[in-house]
């Protein structure tokens, strides 16, 4: 995939690809800084969705007719593309899910069923609720112990504490690649090496990383990697669980239904092979196909250019916001990207978010589904601006002026 | 002034504003000016936890009239609470129970009372209405 000549990185041209960016909100040009929640979709993906439903719509994997074969072929071609994109070894290792949350729940249920009372799961203090609660449910079900890697005041994982928490009892480390609230990029390779040294498996929550940085699951050597389509310019309701084949083979099915079986009798059912064993029922076919399209769109560019540009946007915004009186940046890790989260002394994030909205600016306010992390920083929530490669410095300038105006109105 | 007249009064006040920022400036002023609840009454049993902002509600019926005080940790929420209290305070339980609070929609703030907003305001209105209905039963 690296051999094809890449498209020149031009933000002006990229913006033309995203129709949702060309609109006005409350009479102002939209500034979309909520990319951590979901990304906008390029025309290429919108066309692919339209094309699927207007031409190829049919159920996959079972029809003898032309349309079904066409849909199946596109769906499986997409799986192949995704495999190559994240450099998985085999197509069997790419399971389509509803999204990151679904992928984590699948692993918690299925891999979790292989664990025994007293075994330990390690997560980090900066996890999204979706990488906390499935493990809590599992721990309750199976009598496992959940332990938490702490963070320092900059919002970085305390690696020495992590090493102390690791033991032969640790069966799984479930950790985010990039924090949705802080933007911290975690040192995955170190984490994975250390975990493997005690025989633990590692699940990486890639919801916030797939759209910003290169993912190579073999190079990382992670055991599971999960992400959502909608955060990487694809449709909602589709995502991917990558798992190493030998692990997935040992794991029992998560849900029962059509497509995941080999043979069903009332006495006994045998299961289909990977990846279908984990894909019960009619999937989100259009989503699966168009997630491939979304990755193809992103793959037109050098991901290093994307990464560098987004980091420069975040640095620029952070430097400007830091100059405001009473503003505290939440998450100042040395290695961070695309997110600026901040709190203003004495002001509620909801008030600032509401006023920014009325100025045409979409940001996220609140706890970002990371309540335990907010408790650690002792605040109810933050205002989070999260950037994508279609955002500009000019938008940040407008945003900064709007933040200033909002603060002065509220003080 | 009837409950309906109070609503009309608010709607005409808001009709003076040209844009959203002016509207919100006014709401923020309402929020800042109204020390709505006795700090001693900001207890957990009076707390309505929203996803974004918190609301404290102290509601009772005295001499067949609704007595309301409320507060929020967010100023905009507090300003809207001020408007709701202005309309509902001192009304009979029957008036409160049957009130159609259309002014919120009329002044363009319906989003704050939508079920998805989770800022505690909708739950606050529900609690007030339930209290009024209980008094009628």
Summarize the structure.
By secondary structure, chain A is an alpha/beta fold. In chain A, 38% of the residues lie in helices and 17% in strands. Chain A has 14 helices and 17 strands.
What does this structure look like?
The complex is a heterodimer of chains A (411) and B (137). Chain A is α/β, with parallel strands linked by helices and 411 residues long. Chain A has two domains: 131 residues, Aspartate Aminotransferase, domain 1 (Alpha-Beta Complex); 252 residues, Aspartate Aminotransferase, domain 2 (3-Layer(aba) Sandwich), CATH 3.40.640.10. Helices cover 38% and strands 17% of the residues of chain A. In chain A, strands 4-10-9-8-7-5-6 form a seven-stranded mixed sheet, sandwiched between helices. Chain A has a four-stranded antiparallel sheet with strand order 13-14-17-16, with helices on one face. The longest helix of chain A has 20 residues. The mean pLDDT of chain A is 96. With 137 residues, chain B is an alpha+beta fold. Chain B has a single domain, classed as Sufe protein. Chain: A, CATH 3.90.1010.10. The model of chain B has no long low-confidence stretch (mean pLDDT 89). A three-stranded antiparallel sheet of chain B has the order 1-2-3. In chain B, helix 1 packs antiparallel against helix 3 and helix 2 packs across helix 3. Chain B is built from six helices and three strands.
